[in-house]
Amino acid sequence: MKARVTVTLKPGVLDPQGAAIAQALGGLGFTGVQGVRQGKLIEIDLAEGDAATARAEVEAMCEKLLANTVIETYAVEIA
């Protein structure tokens, strides 16, 4: 089973990397970009066969390691 975790900064948290990307895109001529927020995508291969158990396990991984829940949110997809 595969899991996909998307981690992004919470609204209101400053995103200097997103601001740098937005500025670089403007410099490359993409003038319509009004803002950029960047995050990370983590793909995990799991031995677990039950989707509910896999989701619970991945959510525990996020809470303990993959996301800084003080400033980040995460979304889990199980495939």
UniProtKB/TrEMBL annotation:
Q: Which SUPFAM superfamilies match?
A: PurS-like
Q: Name one GO molecular function term.
A: ATP binding
Q: Does the keyword Iron apply?
A: no
| Subunit | Part of the FGAM synthase complex composed of 1 PurL, 1 PurQ and 2 PurS subunits.
Task: Give the superkingdom in one word.
Answer: Bacteria
According to the UniProt record, one GO cellular component term is:
cytoplasm
Q: What is its EC number?
A: 6.3.5.3
Any single biological process term in GO: 'de novo' IMP biosynthetic process
The record, for PANTHER family, names: PHOSPHORIBOSYLFORMYLGLYCINAMIDINE SYNTHASE SUBUNIT PURS
Name of the protein this chain belongs to: Phosphoribosylformylglycinamidine synthase subunit PurS
User: Which source organism does the UniProt entry give?
Assistant: Rubrimonas cliftonensis
User: What pathway is this protein said to act in by its record?
Assistant: Purine metabolism; IMP biosynthesis via de novo pathway; 5-amino-1-(5-phospho-D-ribosyl)imidazole from N(2)-formyl-N(1)-(5-phospho-D-ribosyl)glycinamide: step 1/2
Q: Which UniProt keywords apply?
A: ATP-binding, Cytoplasm, Ligase, Nucleotide-binding, Purine biosynthesis
Primary role? Part of the phosphoribosylformylglycinamidine synthase complex involved in the purines biosynthetic pathway. Catalyzes the ATP-dependent conversion of formylglycinamide ribonucleotide (FGAR) and glutamine to yield formylglycinamidine ribonucleotide (FGAM) and glutamate. The FGAM synthase complex is composed of three subunits. PurQ produces an ammonia molecule by converting glutamine to glutamate. PurL transfers the ammonia molecule to FGAR to form FGAM in an ATP-dependent manner.
Q: Which InterPro entries match?
A: PurS, PurS-like_sf
Main location, first listed in the record: cytoplasm
The entry's family comment says:
Belongs to the PurS family.
Keyword Cytoplasm on entry: yes
The protein's location, in the record's own words, is: Cytoplasm
Enumerate the catalysed reactions. Answer: N(2)-formyl-N(1)-(5-phospho-beta-D-ribosyl)glycinamide + L-glutamine + ATP + H2O = 2-formamido-N(1)-(5-O-phospho-beta-D-ribosyl)acetamidine + L-glutamate + ADP + phosphate + H(+)
- A Pfam family it matches: PurS
The EC category is ligase
